[in-house]
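hey all, quick one before standup. I had two proteins in the batch that finished overnight and I want to keep them in one place so we stop losing track of which output belongs to which input. First protein below, input sequence then structure tokens straight from the run.
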Amino acid sequence: MSDTLPDVPATHDTIDGIPAPSANPALFGHPSIRSFLAQAYQSGHMHHALLLEGPQGVGKTTLAFHLAGHMLKHPVQRDAPLELAVPDFSVAPYRQIATGTHLAVLHISRPLDAKTGKFKTGITVDEIRRVTHFLNRTAHDGAWRIVIVDPADDMNRNAANALLKTLEEPPQRTLFILISHSSGRLLPTIRSRCQSIRFEGLERSDLLSALATIGLGAEQMPDTEALVTHADGSVRKAALLVAFGGLEISQTIEAILTKPVFDVPKAQALGTALSGRDSEIQFDLFLEDIFSRIAAKAREAAEKGAVAEANHWSTLWQDMQGEAREADAFNLDRKQSVLIFLDRMHRALRAS
């Protein structure tokens, strides 16, 4: 990447070699959304709270920072262009936005736990209280203030309720941008106070172009078509699949689930491989693959009108999501989780 890109503090979802959304000048896909937001801002019809929802790694947070930079570069709305400004990190305001030092932009995400050296599993109420302090501190200048909550799904209930109070009575010239990878986890009252903008996975050409910008060309992707298929239009997921053996994990899962009899030795071998100290990302890729398969089954059943079957798969998805969060919170044995999830999925497929 360009040497002009600023150094940005790591967040819970930072990937080595990939610029953070706040410091990423490149944005691929979503032309209608970009155009809509630029027009809404220029016309003065921008909603005070935007909910950008869709798969992780498709550009939602990057677009949020592009919009923030655009608004601050063009504070007089009627004079703003109808295309979002491209960040220029050679100038101070954009570098300040990227590094979290701009006085008009607050980025809320999962905080680092000073005791453990790891990022917390959720956004706490103390983080949301920073929003009130931020708004009170900057209210006097009459300039735009932009709060990005990334992702809003990670807020615990106390944090969500605290944010809700601010959303109900938003200060003037304040924009809230909530990022959501799984909007079903948000309070309905928060959703109702936001304008929802749905993002889809990137098209094949946009995905490949985005991967090329981070150094993942054809030579680093020997099986490009398999990668595109498994990435689901997500640059983040594609990068992780390449860097951490995600395709091999998915192929092993497929081999286990398609056999008529549950292959215990193969499942145990996979569980062992994913339970190592340095295998957290691989384990997350395993979970994401399993959940994607369940979600696909639920959509397939819903599309053919099989309501009971769709509900069955949806319930399984919710149950296993809860079990995964519990396993993470209590640091349970990952190998056991792999065996349990594979066995449940295998039995569910045989019963369908």
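OK second protein, same deal, sequence then tokens:
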Amino acid sequence: ILANNRVLRETEFENIFVQPACSDTGLSLGGLYHMYHNILWNEDRIKLVSPWLWFEYKDDEILAELENYKDKISYERLWDEKYEKVAEILSEDNIIWWFQWKTEFWPRALWFRSIFASPISKNMRERVNNIKERDQFRPLAPIMMEDYFKDYLDATHSSPYMTLVADVLDEKKDKIPSVVHVDGTSRYQTVNAKQNKEVYTLLDYFNQKMGISVLINTSFNQHDEPIAEKPEDAIKMFLSTDLDYLVI
């Protein structure tokens, strides 16, 4: 990610795209592109438009799984007020598991299997890292409304896949301390309504309530564990940690 940022700042490239499945999982995409361009000799460029390739779980499946654990958890169904309610929960320094739609094809969660928390409290990074059993020096990323990222960062490019880093503006470091690394930077993620309307709307409500259009975003897993795939995975992980709420 530091190298990505240097390409933008120190070369003549005006923009870059970094394929987000940049671990060994990306080899499958590389193989497909190699076949398409170098063996079949197609010249058209193919944009990555659908990185959500796994299963989708229906409401009745989720409700059935919740009922299997009704002796251990209680739950409430939220409808039109869900974003406002979750934003209120986050504003009270609660940490939530966020499980939505399909899992994502890359090493980290971005929008659908996440842990969200408010970045305003100075001790929130420690709390989240303790829950995930991570080393305390490891930073947490901010997810922010694309409309406002320049209000917080010395950055010129949006970063929907969390593949860029930027300096946090001096006047904002005390506003979002839990997502500022020791060198004053953040590995940031931007989101707009087209990319993910649900998360964008949640950020909008949090912004209306707290005056901050930023949340902590980290993957829905614990240390050395895979990201949650099924509703059952999400519930078991919720029950085995000190997180406050599961939004599924």
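Flagging for whoever picks this up: The chain has a mean pLDDT of 89. The chain is about 30% helix and 15% strand.
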